[in-house]
Design brief:
Blueprint (H helix, E strand, L loop, with lengths): L2 E6 L3 H14 L3 E7 L3 E2 L4 H6 L10 E2 L8 E5 L2 E5 L4 E4 L2 E4 L2 E4 L4 E3 L16 H10 L6 E7 L9 H15 L6 E6 L10 H14 L2 E3 L4 E5 L4 E4 L4 E3 L2 E5 L1 E3 L2 H5 L3 E2 L2 E3 L12 E3 L4 E2 L6 H20 L10 E7 L5 E7 L7 E5 L3 H19 L2
Bound molecules: flavin-adenine dinucleotide (FAD).
Length: about 375
Amino acid sequence: MTTRVLILGAGFGGLELATTLSEALGEGVAVTVIDRSDSFVFGYSKLDVMFGRTTAEAVRNPYADVLKPGVRLLRETVTGIDAAARRVTTDRGSHEGDILVIALGADYDVSGTPGVVLGVNEFYSVAGAAHLATVLPEFKGGDVVVGVCGAPYKCPPAPSECALMLHDYVTARGLAGATRITVVNPLPSPVPPSPEMSAAILKAFEARGIGFIPNTRVTAVDAGAGRVTLSDGAVLPCDLFLGVPKNRAADVVVAAGLTENGWVTVDPLTLATSYPGVFAVGDLAATGVPKAGVYAEGAARTVAANIIAMVRGEPQTARNPGAGSCYIEIGAGLIARIDVDFLSGPKPFGTFHGASEEMRRDKEEFGASRRARWFGR
Ligand SMILES: Cc1cc2nc3c(=O)[nH]c(=O)nc-3n(C[C@H](O)[C@H](O)[C@H](O)COP(=O)(O)OP(=O)(O)OC[C@H]3O[C@@H](n4cnc5c(N)ncnc54)[C@H](O)[C@@H]3O)c2cc1C
């Protein structure tokens, strides 16, 4: 009997898992990947779209290009998950697996943050980034708040990158003197596991007059009155809000009874849930590592290695490394990198690589290698 692996979500985690299984087992495994979208977009592309460096259409990676032995990709929306039976329902039918891997990413919840509207004043969805790309050219200067509405959230450095890229943008338009940028972030520093990276970002903020309010989140946005309210009760003037909505696992995952405090409970090292044969990888899993593509990939490779071992009748010894590299735009087109290892030592350990041309090439290679590996492009 061919092992049936059912993967929910074709993002960083789902694509890496399906690819690794196909490379190792080919037709020797029956992989079904379900995603409601027709294409994948790298998270960092949303910043490029927002600042008009590219378009939403240009950054789409169509799932139709994913052609791999043993893998079929279905465009369906998951509407129910029965973890005990490893069965899911979708808008088009139902599917079962011998192994079920849930990789549906983090969803956005604006219900608790009045004034934050998906697709309008946030840059964490493609629609939001594309909409802001039409708003920014109309901006004439004023107070801009880059505000995070809750933690944990995907890609901790992204709000800092947004502020620095915005500064470049208003400078190019001759509006820097008329613009005041403030970052509001529930984290204690821009990138807590790397004091060096945080210091470099804060130095870049200081040089540009960008304010940073740590340990604080945005609780409401009043566009009409031109202000935002913060979790400590303070009110900031705000002519333009660029938001990071509260992140949490999707309703369908919560309804399946798999979550605690909004995230799926797993063994961080094996990504196993409490249901036999059911795993959760990527942003929706509570592993203690950041919600970023590289960590989703590492988790996916771990689950893939153990599935491959199981199919081959070998011991399942793979463990989630919880380590990865993140690239960060620190303004003026410069790119730096941090490598952070979260799980192998007693506490997270980060290594900072300052901005260089090598880092820029590295980041380009990061995207290009995934496009080649997952989409054959
Ligand atoms: C602005 C920004 C910048 C970022 N920059 C970086 C970066 O530089 N480096 C980095 O490593 N990470 C970055 N990230 C984070 C990265 O994008 C995510 O951490 C990563 O995509 C998580 O992978 P995942 O597989 O868990 O989920 P995702 O990649 O989000 O994939 C989840 C998939 O599930 C699908 N799905 C959801 N619900 C359903 C449903 N009900 N039915 C069917 N399909 C469904 C979605 O369509 C999606 O394709 C950034 C994110 C943002 C927003």
